[in-house]
Write a structure and sequence with these properties.
Elements (H helix, E strand, L loop, with lengths): L2 H7 L9 E3 L2 H9 L18 E7 L13 E7 L4 E5 L7 H14 L6 E4 L12 H17 L19 H38 L19
Parallel strand pairs: 1-2, 4-5
Antiparallel strand pairs: 2-3, 3-4
Length: 222
Amino acid sequence: MSVRYLEREYLINYPKAHIVLLRPSMSFMLMQTPDPLTLKDALPDFSKTTHIFLPINDCRNVEVAEGGSHWSLLLVSLNDGVSFHYDSLWPSNSREAELASRKIGQLLGGKSLQYVDLEDSPQQENSSDCGVFVCVQMKHLLLGRLLRANAQEKISMSMRGKKVDARAGRKEMLKIIEEFRKEGERRRSELEMITVTGTFGGWFGVPARTPEDLDIADLDLY
């Protein structure tokens, strides 16, 4: 249930929705850049955006790849001018989330965003489920709240009373990964078949097709 998965499997079916799911790397870059306006060309166009999802990590060292030890979720409602922070080990990432909220406001021309740290967010019971909580909550808020609501409906962003089943979330992720793996194998088999067929075709006077002739972008699973 990565950002790309939610975009390509679900959000793509709602062309009128102006919701942005920022990549974790983009969120981190935004937080670490002194002047976020310098990132305008690298980030999506937020002029028509209603909501922005940002995975938040507590890494503070830009020289450490895959640093940090905790993930949380920030949901910015530009319609309401509010940033909602969901932290499964509250208040671990409050500083980072509030910083990201301020940076988004600066990026939008100094827009004032109210920062709300949701203390009633579902809490994890160990030290390793934070990423699962981010994915499960992002999916729920996107599919169960935002994409179901009509334009005039007031949406509650609270996750109070919502139970996050981390074990079920992990199983779903493993299932998705396995489906992608099988799809990748199927496409590679098709590619090999086309290559072999093209080679034999070349022997019989038909121009052979090589892997370079194929649109490799069509084989991108991610």
